[in-house]
Amino acid sequence: MTEGSRGEGSQKEEIMAFEHISVLLYETVDGLNVKPDGIYVDATLGGGGHAYEVCSRLGSQGRLIGIDQDADAIRAAGKRLECFGEKVTIVRSNYCDMKQQLQKLGIDKVDGITVDLGVSSYQLDTAERGFSYRVDAPLDMRMDQRQKMTARDIINDYSESELYRVIRDYGEDRFAKNIAKHIVAERKKAPIETTGQLNEIISHAIPMKVRKTSGHPSKRTFQAIRIELNHELDVLRDTLDDMIELLNPGGRLCIITFHSLEDRIVKSSFRKNENPCTCPSHFPVCVCGNVSKGKVITRKPILPSEEELEVNSRSKSAKLRIFERA
């Protein structure tokens, strides 16, 4: 059932509790229009919530390929989905390698793909993963712990101008320049090792009146460092066209984003694939030869219901967009 998740000798035999409430669960799986004999990919498998719902709608000939780069997610999802037996194949990889991973499995086209770009509750709540600004832990933030570079390396090794760029572009923080300046000043005294230290530095870089009236001062910087470390926006931007190409006619791509930068990339890509014509607007007919790949199903993104928001506050910023292949 599982590929690429063996040989972790030092890992616990016991499956760790991978708590993650699947955001927009039914809206996403309904949006796939699951065919009983179809082939589907959950590109960000996580705890397997979306995958479980997809599998429950598959017939005996249906198949699901789950992809995730997090070893804890692989183990948890494997346990959760084992009741579906041979219908499920799990691969430890980044979804940017989806095409190659599917080719290894003898699959050229699929009937649907889901992508949930959120950080799982497990990753946020497991202190030693270093994703959260609410607990003191080593600066890590790696989605794939086989990766050598960590958040600590970015904080201590990037130049002030590079830190400013990351925090400004990926965190959209108006105090990015001051935060970068404070980080560089503090690390000259001693390396910055923990989320707690970084929290303290960020707090001092933001005016008191802003801290009192806005959300947590570290939220945007932590988001920015995480995105930079894991190349999240680059992977998304570089993979969207490939995912659309992988779809059979009528196949659907369902993507859940959690902040404006992701959503902007998805929205733009979907529009471009629906209408790739580059001819000037005054041309009476298209002569560029670019052919539409399909249509955008969601003219406006699907948002969580009030009921979901009450149960899972982390779904607050989620947006679902759907594209259907021609």
From TrEMBL:
Q: Which family does it belong to?
A: Belongs to the methyltransferase superfamily. RsmH family.
HAMAP family the record matches: 16SrRNA_methyltr_H (MF_01007)
Q: Where in the cell is it found?
A: Cytoplasm
For this entry, list what GO says about its biological process. Answer: rRNA base methylation
Q: Which organism is it from?
A: [Ruminococcus] lactaris ATCC 29176
Which NCBIfam families has this protein been placed in?
A: 16S rRNA (cytosine(1402)-N(4))-methyltransferase RsmH
> Which residues are noted in the entry as S-adenosyl-L-methionine-binding?
48-50, 68, 95, 116, 123
Highest classification ranks of the organism: Bacteria, Bacillati, Bacillota, Clostridia, Lachnospirales
Q: What is this protein called?
A: Ribosomal RNA small subunit methyltransferase H
Annotated EC: 2.1.1.199
Q: Which gene encodes it?
A: rsmH
Taxonomic superkingdom: Bacteria
Q: Record keywords: Zinc included?
A: no
